[in-house]
Amino acid sequence: MKIEIYSTPICPNCKTVKNALDSVGAEYESITGGESISVEDMQDNFMKRFGMPLRAVPFVVVDNEPIGDVMKFMPWFKEHKDNLKELTSSVDSVDDIDFDMDL
Predict the structure, then answer these.
(1) Using N-to-C axis directions, what is the helix angle for 12-23 and 70-80, rounded to 10°?
(2) Which residue range forms the structural domain that includes residue 33?
(3) Can you give the pTM of this predicted structure?
């Protein structure tokens, strides 16, 4: 599962979403307008991906499906929080792969 958060550095609700994900050890990508990307490029990227303007941040996307702002994210988070760490973890090295298979 891939979680992306469109955000800005001074957005308090962005911090709320990130803190919620951090609290359960979930991995996510933050697309931060004004830091990792310009605000204009972030808005252009969003429009190209979803065919709608990015009107407010935070905006959460899960597996390329728009979830929405903090009000739409929090119910989704409550429903999925128990499994997010496992579902969002990435394999960092060959040592993390389970090769014990019956062939």
Answers:
(1) 0
(2) 3-89
(3) 0.82
